[in-house]
Amino acid sequence: MTTLMKGQLFETTELINQTSNTEFILLGFGNHQIFHVPLYLLFFFIYMGTMAGNLLIILLVALDQHLHTPMYVFLGNLSCLETCCSSNILPQMLSSFLTGSKVISLRACFVQHYLFGSLGAVECYLLSAMSYDRYLAICRPLHYVAMMNGRMCFRLIASSWITGFLASAVTQIIMSQSVFCNNKIDHFFCDTFPIIESFCGDTHAFKLYLYVLCSIFTFPPSILTLTSYIFIIVAIMRMPSTVGKQKAFSTCSSHLLVVTIFYGTLINIYVVPNTNKLNELRKVLSLFYTIFTPMFNPIIYTLRNKEVKDALRRLCHFLFRFREI
Ligand SMILES: *[C@@H]1O[C@H](CO)[C@@H](O)[C@H](O)[C@H]1NC(C)=O
Fold it and tell me: What is the value of pTM for the model shown?
């Protein structure tokens, strides 16, 4: 596959405007200097909020004995993932607002692209593992403790991380051997399709390969998530008591919200046609899944979840007493 793609790309190389290939220019949000300071401040506070919220969840899950259950170990890992996601994109973006420099080295761009692809895939797997966990808890309550034990939980989490990082590696290898005719990327970070736009020659084969790869790796977990939720909703609707319904729903509603946001933004990105006219729209939509989703997850989980709120209260009590001593 690799040699085929390379061959095709080389055949049609337009050597005329081939660039030196050591750096890219991220066009970002345009050249309006006047917006740089407000945008810098906006994204700075978003980044601080994202880090604070997610690190707080990681801390709670690590410290509070009541949260040492599979559901919260998954949540801790999700928060860990979200801190990585925003740290992959935001610091570079903030520094470009501050310095006005849009240049990013080829290597930094590829690292960012690889991490972005891998973390996105890991999120997809982790969300499906979490929905499977909720499925077992609600639809198979008698077998839950036996099936979702520490070992199973560890396996699901480890395989999510490993598969995510492997799935992205092949694409990255192909991409890093491609020839670029243009070093301008019309985006605010090194995302896949904007990078492909600067490849030399015909990119259809590579795009097709990407669609096939994405389908192979993201379809199974998406289907698993979807079916888990169908079973969960049917099971909840069949419950005889209203109290039972509410209790079951409250343990999975925040997760359902996060899943909906994740897939909602993802579908938006891939449904929007890939044309230059819609580049600005694509950038705004990308902001959602790269920057806003990681910020919202901790808010959703802490505000909507009683156990997390209780853990937070215990932590506050503990810190408060600690200060008085
Ligand atoms: C992530 O999952 C691993 C494996 O189960 C667990 O040991 C670790 O504590 C989790 N991380 C967080 C931050 O909760």
Answer: 0.85
pLDDT digits (tens, 9 = 90+) for 75-96: 999 999 999 999 999 999 999 8
Domain positions in the chain: 24-324
Q: How high is the mean pLDDT of the chain?
A: 83
Q: Judging by beta carbons within 10 Å of its beta carbon (0-12, 13-18, 19+), is residue 17 exposed, middle or buried?
A: exposed
Helix (H) or strand (E) holding 216: helix 204-238
Q: Which atom of ligand 1 is nearest to the CA of 73?
A: 14
Mutation to probe ligand 1, out of 73, 74, 80 (largest number of atoms < 8 A from CB): 73
Among candidate residues 38, 132, 21, the one with its CA nearest the CA of residue 94: 38
CA 227 to chain centre: 21
For domain 24-324, the CATH superfamily is Rhodopsin 7-helix transmembrane proteins (1.20.1070.10)
Ligand 1 pocket by C-beta < 6 Å: which residues? 58, 61, 73, 76-77, 80, 153-154, 157
